[in-house]
Design a protein that fits this description.
The chain is α+β, with helices and mostly antiparallel strands. The chain has helices spanning 2-21, 43-48, 128-132; strands at residues 27-30, 33-40, 60-70, 73-75, 83-88, 94-101, 111-113, 118-125, 140-143. The N and C termini lie far apart (43 Å).
């Protein structure tokens, strides 16, 4: 009985872990290219962003979601890789792009603002936006 219960418990644990890991992966599509993104939805996630990452795969990024549309400004404190910051309005249209922003080496770090109100920000590896030809008005598809 004990051995069977242990096997059942182990099987249930495996199923529970598999279910948790099998949750839908969020991704965005921009200019026909898909990027798998980590979501930053809380104040804590917004603050830490991609800090301390030494590398990021070419098809990865971070997607920041804010409650309201307003002027945004990001900085690169403790960010180790160059990034593109793409600002989107509530309709997922590009408001502005900060391209190939280098890691911060000054204190205080400079900020990189949007040129208009934005509700979403997509961070990708530096240079990606230029390679894709991203410009204001381009649309983003977001899949949760």
């Amino acid at each position: 009985m004990f051995r069977r219960a242990t096997r059942t418990l182990a099987a249930l644990s495996f199923v529970a872990c598999s279910s948790a890991n099998a949750q839908a992966i969020s991704y965005v599509t921009l200019k026909g290219k898909t990027f798998y993104v980590e979501l930053a939805e809380t104040d804590e996630q917004h603050a830490s962003g991609l800090m301390f990452r030494e590398r990021m795969a070419a098809d990865r990024g971070m997607f920041f979601i804010f409650r309201n549309e307003y002027m945004q400004a990001f900085w690169m404190k403790n960010t180790l890789i160059p990034l593109d910051m793409l600002y989107f309005d509530k309709k997922f249209r590009v408001v502005s792009v900060q391209s190939n922003v280098p890691p911060c080496t000054a204190d205080p770090c400079p900020s990189y603002p949007s040129s208009g109100p934005a509700m979403y920000v997509l961070e990708l590896n530096g240079g990606t936006a230029d390679k894709l030809g991203v410009k204001p008005g381009d649309s983003l598809e977001f899949h949760r």
